[in-house]
Amino acid sequence: RLNISNALAENAIRPFAVGRRNWLFADTPRGAKASATTYRLIETAKANGVEPFAYLHHVLQHIGNARTVEDIEALLPWNTSVKKMQ
C-alpha cells in the first residue's frame, strides 16, 4: 500500500526550498557569507541540542567581549549554559 499523500516528502524538503528562496536575496558575496554564517550557527546549535534562538541571543550578547581564542571557544554551543531544546 502506498500513501496517496506526499506530505512527508514535502515536509522533508521544505527547509531547502525556503532556503533557496531566501538565498536569492544574498546579492553580494558578503551577504551570502553572512547568511551562511547564520545558518551554520543555527544548525550547529540544533545538532548540539541547544535552543537556536537562545543560543544566537547569547552569542550576540557576548561576542563583542571575546578577546582570546578561549573566549570564542566558550561561546561554542557545547560549551555554553544556554538552555537545551526539549
How would you characterize the overall build of this protein?
- The protein is mostly helical and 86 residues long.
- Helix content is 60%, strand content 0%.
- The chain is built from four helices and no strands.
- The termini are far apart.
- The model has no long low-confidence stretch (mean pLDDT 84).
Q: Main attributes?
A:
86 residues, mainly alpha, 0% strand, flat
Quick summary:
By secondary structure, the chain is an all-alpha fold. Helices cover 60% and strands 0% of the residues. It is flat.
Measured by DSSP, the beta-strand proportion falls in: under 5%
Radius of gyration: 17 Å
Number of β-strand runs: 0
- The gross shape turns out to be flat
Low-confidence stretches: none
Largest sheet: none
Number of helices: 4
On the 0-100 scale, what is the average pLDDT?
84
Q: Give helix and strand order, one letter per element, not per position.
A: HHHH
Termini Cα gap: 34 Å
Which percent range fits the helix content? 55-70%
Could you say which structural class the secondary elements and strand pairing correspond to?
Answer: mainly alpha
